[in-house]
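Sample intake sheet
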Amino acid sequence: MPSFLEARNQILANVPLLGQERVLITDAVGRILAEDITASWDMPRWTNSAMDGYAVRSQDCQQPTRLEVIDFIAAGGVSDKTVIPGVAIKIMTGAPLPEGADAVIPVEETTADGTFVQTQKMVKPGAHIRNRGEDVVEGECIVPRGTLLRPAEIGMLASYGKAFLPVYRKPRVAILSTGDELVELGEPLSENRIINSNSLALVAALKEIGAEPVVLGIALDNRASHIEKISEGLKADVLITSAGVSTGDRDFVRAVLEDLGAKPVFWKVDIKPGRPTTFAMKDGKPIFSLPGNPVSTMVTFEELVKPGLLKMMGHTRVIKQEVEAVLESDLTKKRLGVLNFQRVNITIRDGQYFASCSGDQNTGILKTMVRADALALLPEDKDVFMAGEKVKIHILGPHVTMQEG
C-alpha cells in the first residue's frame, strides 16, 4: 500500500499530457498555452507620447519659455514636420514622437496662447516618452508554454494579433456513481435511498479546474450494470468512479475494471479518509476509483485526482502548496501510522496562519467539509496535536478569513 506521496507520484508518473487544439482567443481564458509565443515586433512599435501635450526639445525648456506650435499629431496620426529650436508640436497620447523632439510637456503644465504655448516648468530629456521596444523587444518570448491564460496574457497576445491560440485540450472526465441505494437529483426519494450527490460534487470540482465532466449516472449493484457503465466511461479521457471499491459482495468496480483490461497501479492508499482509493490505467487512460463517502470523495479528489488532471491539462504547477499553521485547538487521530487529512478553519493574523477544528471529523459529517477552509496534514508518527503546535495545511479555497492581529 503506497503512502500519500508515493500514490501521488505514481499518478503523476502515469497520466499523459493531452494533445493540443487551437481556440479563439476569447475562449482561451483559463486554458494552458501549449507553445511559446514570441513577439513579432517591438512594443511599443514606435517611440510615442505618454501624455496629451506638446513635443519639444528639452534644451529649449530649461526654464519657462514661449514656443510656436507648428503642427498637431492625433493618436494614429503622424507629422512630417521637425521640431527645431523655438517650436513645439501638439501631440496626443500614443502618437509617434516627431523628429527633433526628445520630450513631451503635459498640456496641464502649459498655457496656450493662439499659435504659441507657454511652458511653466523645466523639462528633462525623455520626459513623458515611451521608447520603442521598452516593453517588449522583437523576438522576445512574451508568453511561455505552460502559462495559465489570464486577462493580462490575453491582452498581451491580442496586441500581437493572435486571434487563435494553441492550448492543451480539456480532458473529458466520465463520472460514475455506484449503488442500489442511490437516486438521481429530482427523482422520488423513498425510504432507505439517498441522492447521488457525489456525481454533482465531482461535476463542480471538474468545472472548477476547467475539465469537461461527462455524467454516466448510477451503476446498479450487479455485474452487468457495472460492465455497461464502465465500458461507456472508458470512452472518455479519464474515468472517475465513486463507491464499490472495497471487497464486499456488491463491490464490483475492481473486478469489472480488471475484466475490461485495466492495469492496476495501486488499490489502496495509506491515508484517512480515502484509504480505499484506487488508481489504474487502460490504454493510456487514467481511472480513479474513489470511496463512496462524500467527504472521502472530495478529499481524495482534491489531494490525488486534481494533481493528475492538472498535469494532463498542461499545468506546470500541479501540487498544492503546503503552508504552516499554528493550531488553536487540539486535533486527534484515531490511530497511528496513517497520514490523516483533517478539516480545519483558517484565519490569518500578522501574516501567520492559524487553524482550528471545523467540527466532527467523522467522514459521514458533510457540514464539516462545507465549513472547512483547509485540510491539515497530520503525519503518521503522532496521534495527538496540541493547541500551539504547528502543522502543514492545504488551503481548499479563496474564502480564508483575514483578521488583523
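Comment: The radius of gyration is 31 Å. The CA atoms of residues 348 and 402 lie 5 Å apart.
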